[in-house]
Amino acid sequence: MIGNSVYSPSDQSLSSPNPNLCITVGSMEEEQMVVEGEEEEEEEEELPLPIDDPADLGIDLEDDCDGLLQIETGIDEDAPIAHSAPAPGMEFESYDDAYSYYNSYARELGFAIRIKSSWTKRNSKEKRGAVLCCNCEGFKMVKEANTTTTSRRKETRTGCQAMIRLKLIDFDRWKVDQVKLDHNHSFDPERAHNSKSHKTSSASANTKLQQQPPLHVQVRTINLYRALAVPHGTSCSSSYSSTSPGGDHSLSSRPLLPPGGFSFLQDFFFRIQLTSPNFLYLMDLTDDGSLRNVFWIDPRARAAYSHFGDVVLFDTTCLSNSYQLPLVSFVGIDHHGDSILLGCALLAHQTFETYLWLFRAWLTCMLGRPPQTFITQQCKAMRAAVSEVFPRAHHRLSLTHVLHNIFQSVVQLQDSELFRMALNRVVYGCLKVEEFETAWEEMIIRFGLTNHETIHHVFQDRELWAPVYLKDTFLAGALTFRLGDVAAPFIFSGYVHEHTSLREFLEGYQSFLDKKYTRQALCDSESSKFIPELKTTHPYESQMAKVFTVEIFRRFQDEVSAMTSCFGITQVHSNGSASSYVVKEREGEKVRDFEVIYETSAEAQVRCFCVCGGFSFNGYQCRHVLLLLSHNGLQEVPPQYILQRWRKDVKRLYVADFGSGCVDIMNQDQWYEHLHRRAMQVVEQGMRSKEHCRVAWEALQSCLESI
Asked: What ranges does the record list as Acidic residues composition bias (predicted)?
């Protein structure tokens, strides 16, 4: 197996199996390289550096991309780069990459480097190994020393032993085989800056800046050069923690990964990337090179986001319940109303800076396309980061977790069925803001919670979680969608528990995704073939049976069936094209009034809004609106209320199609990504029917013959 990638490649990615620079930690078992028929030759001159110096590569995402992950732009010689020290086991895509890394490390510390020796295969110019050393290595020969004295040049060689030895492995990768870090002299940054190796590096970097591509190409070729390998055994002095009653997350002293976890995580990423080139992962490192946070996302999730990116839930159940695994996940809702994974991360801390990095990393992967609604748990740090990265998104709190926090905080009432019923009645039963606030006040007085700190904090945030305030927010069923519970994270329920280790999680991760994708495919198949049994004779039911997926149709069918409990439509106000109606509904022995606004435009388009907020909450119209539509003579649900995200007749391509389609003709990685993406779109379209398959096959055959 080839070495394991440590930082994510750039989009296009950030997804290419051959990024400009790939620094890796190989297996812990050292492989002895046998060199046959090779001879060592001394090199007097330093080899020129490559034009692309990854240490100085970066982008600045401006204007409407403010929320994206910021990566340094240009060359700033004074800015600290904080490259981690070289270590045995590091691997690079090429010799030039290895040279660039060691040269950048040297420039940061304040010394220069040169090539002490290199060797090639006999009768060939192919380089097989090299030793890069400090420029102060060795001593001048007597003749050289006399010449130096005559020209009055200061003697710089001190016999310094600092060096790294490189070996070519697997014919295309370079591995650090031996390292000596100690110097026997002081560093002279100014003199080192003027050395041959660093002058060449700066010239290469300036050339690169002059050739910098447009913004859309930069976004698609982000290079995270600073994400260097962490030597085996290095741990992070960071932590994660649980949620306090007030909703803030405190810190506990605990490393991000267990001993040996970094190597295992790295192997996991590289194995996936070998079979899935668009797989992406990003690592956040401390100044000393320790792993602080890591984020990853598979290509299907990035593609699915284009279909279901309107509502995203951020699940931190593992953190808030102090699981062994500091896992968080981005979750979407697919066309079957089921959960889909849109990215995962392991976090060392629960601070504003951590969430800021993570949200920017995730948004960068989605090329700056924020969700319409973003749902999280209660946390001040998280809330501030959401405001910073997703300023235009509707930030809401998970109602499930809010209610859970309430029950956890009122210890004396946890077993009180009366309190549970009262809370549910206040949260779900109030239709207007004034009604909710009055009922809440009465409830806390009744149960003696007037001065309860958690209850106070929860009520302060009521506009972010109480349904009565969310009627202008599209939630796609997430209001009653179980984001999580005490036992396990919502999407990983039955898979991740309190004592799940990193190894157990990663070993079952791909199997978990395969089951999710298989389930989705089976639901697609069922929806395309299934002829549902109708419960009524209403035309709306038969109309939606042909349109909605099975699960969404069943939910809609419940609304149609419930129309029988509604009656007494009364028009209470009219103002030109807009009218206000009251629809009565019988709930047990009680009758409630629901106000519905009905409006017709000049184009005869109908708009409806019910005080219950059914369409915003669920993505399909409620029983009250359906009854009014029928009352006004509409035989079908208006098309604007049939969302594409729920339709079963939409063929969804799970091949990411981000960017403008422009390809850097000098970048072979972009050739591959562009061709692969277009080819997969042909394959997806070809699966629609036998005729589509025939046309796609003939087109591919024609293309192949032309090539």
From this structure: 28-51
